Amino acid sequence: MQTVTLNVEGMSCNHCVSSIENAMKELGASGKVDLAAGKVMVEYDENQLTLDAIKEAIEDQGYDIV
Amino acid sequence: MQTVTLNVEGMSCNHCVSSIENAMKELGASGKVDLAAGKVMVEYDENQLTLDAIKEAIEDQGYDIV
Q1: Contacting residues of B for A15, CB less than 8 Å apart
Q2: CB distance B13–A14 less than 8 Å?
Q3: What ipTM describes this predicted complex?
Q4: Which residue of A has its CA nearest to B16?
Q5: Kind and range of the H or E element at A50?
Q6: Contact B62 A14 (CB under 8 A)
Q7: pLDDT band at B49 (very low <50, low <70, confident <90, very high)
Q8: What are the start-end ranges of the H helices in chain A?
Q9: pTM for the whole structure
Q10: Residue A10 and residue A38: Cα distance in Å, rounded?
Q11: From which residue to which does the signal peptide run (chains A, B) (predicted)?
């Protein structure tokens, strides 16, 4: 397992938290959003998933990785 | 029909817009959120619905009427 913390811009409320955490779940990863800090911590199996796929899923929800 | 504009605090993103507009639709009213202005315009049938019911539905979504 691999853990990465991403800085993500545009997350403003609990709906945003859910949309990102659900997107991570759909990928088979586990995401935890720190709204105040603008960070997303993702734990994932590096044999199953690439970091790029994770970033893309977050961007697809309408957020920017910074 | 009656139209009212409410000042609503805490709406921060398009998820918030959807949650409020959907709540209005469920009541049988028609809501339009102006995110930048922090306003919700609601058109409703005053024979079917009270303003208090509308305010309550917005507050139930986690927002404050100011």
Answers
A1: 13, 15-16, 19
A2: no
A3: 0.74
A4: A15
A5: none
A6: yes
A7: very high
A8: 14-27, 51-60
A9: 0.84
A10: 8
A11: none
